[in-house]
Amino acid sequence: MIRWSRSATLRFAALVFALQIAGSAVVLLTVRSITEKQLTANATDEAGRLRATLLDGWASGGVDRLVRVAEARLDRSDRPQSVVLVIGRDGRVLAGNVAAWPPNVVIGPPSTIEIFRVARSQPEAMRVIGTVLPDGTRLLTGHVIEGELAFVGAMEAAMVAAMVVALLLAALAGWAAARLIAARLGRTAQTVAAVTAGDLAQRVALDGGNDAFEALGRSVNAMLDRIAMLVGELKLATDGLAHDLRSPLTRLRATLERALAAAESEEGRVAVLRAMDEGDRLLGMLDTALRITRAEAGIGREAFQPVDLSALVADVADMFEPLAEDRGLAIRVVDGGGVTVPANREMIGQAVANMVDNALKYGAGVIRVGVEQAEGSVAIIVADDGPGIPPDRRDDALRRFGRLDAARTESGAGLGLSLVAAVAHLHGGTLELGDNAPGLVARMTIAV
Known about the structure:
Blueprint lengths: L1 H4 L2 H68 L6 E6 L5 E4 L14 E5 L8 E9 L5 E7 L1 H51 L15 H51 L3 H31 L8 E4 H18 L3 E5 L5 E4 L1 H18 L3 E9 L2 E7 L10 H5 L17 H11 L4 E5 L4 E8 L1
Parallel strand pairs: 7-9
Antiparallel strand pairs: 1-2, 1-5, 3-4, 4-5, 6-8, 9-10, 10-12, 11-12
Helix pairs in contact: 2-3, 3-4, 4-5, 5-9, 6-7, 7-9
């Protein structure tokens, strides 16, 4: 829920939904208010006109004339909604279609009440005006608005239905807006994911518009063009560096070999051999560092082909078995079935060899090597029964030239696991170090 509440797409959809609902509610409530006020005003006008007619009758002939005009008005079939009541100053009902003066009618201003008319079985809502004449006679005039209120009620029911429809349409509008944004940004996200996996040729597809999404796509494409150019320059630079450094190192070794042949004393030969070993180690470090740089830059993906990881792991284990026997260890291949994935065979083989070599150098007991399948990935696992690596030092073991104190007694430059991590990244996976209880388990995943 917290993750969804922080989603910009969800917040935008909620904003569209809220604005749609607010707009619909304002329109419907405004229509209802205007309609109800208009109906009340019309009923008030009818009651006022009826009052004026009756007052004209009273002015021309007194109470008797008032009563005749009232009865004539009630006899008219074209005025079925009229309300009239004339009460004499002695309290008797002189004329009208209401049995008695309503107790909640205030003399003067119009009011809305609900009472029975004569010969009616149900009370009715009406708009009435109460008047007291100079001689004490009371006059009540009004207009029944029961039908109008029923219309307003029907309109309210229609408004509720309209609000339900508005809710559905607002939800649809919010969903459509969210899908539109997700689709436009999804292309950019897919392109970035493909480039992250090593496909530097991918670019965001543009529609040719002039909105923010197009501007973002053009900016991302420009950035990817720049990255591709830099990676190309890096490849040229690393290839040139490798060539330039290997040549003097090779000449240095040839010179040392001649010095070894010309050495007359045993001490001189030993010193030359040590210098040759250091030269070979330096050449190996250079080669490994260049491999790591190229893998992290995505170079090598073009050589992907179907690779049987189970067979490859078994071959690497066979290659290291004599060395394991010399160290008093054993290598056991855990059969995980045939697993074939698209990969760079040479780099995967080097990575597995580095993992096994690391286990032989710093592990103990039985070295278990195997392949496990999971949803969307394959894992190559190398586990040993040695002392392992504390959780807080595992990140140090994965850094370039990172060597733990216990590893400094062995030959190496601290690049073995760094190369494994770079190869895993090239194949869309990761390298994780865990606790084998006891020992260390290294898990290199490959996306499939």
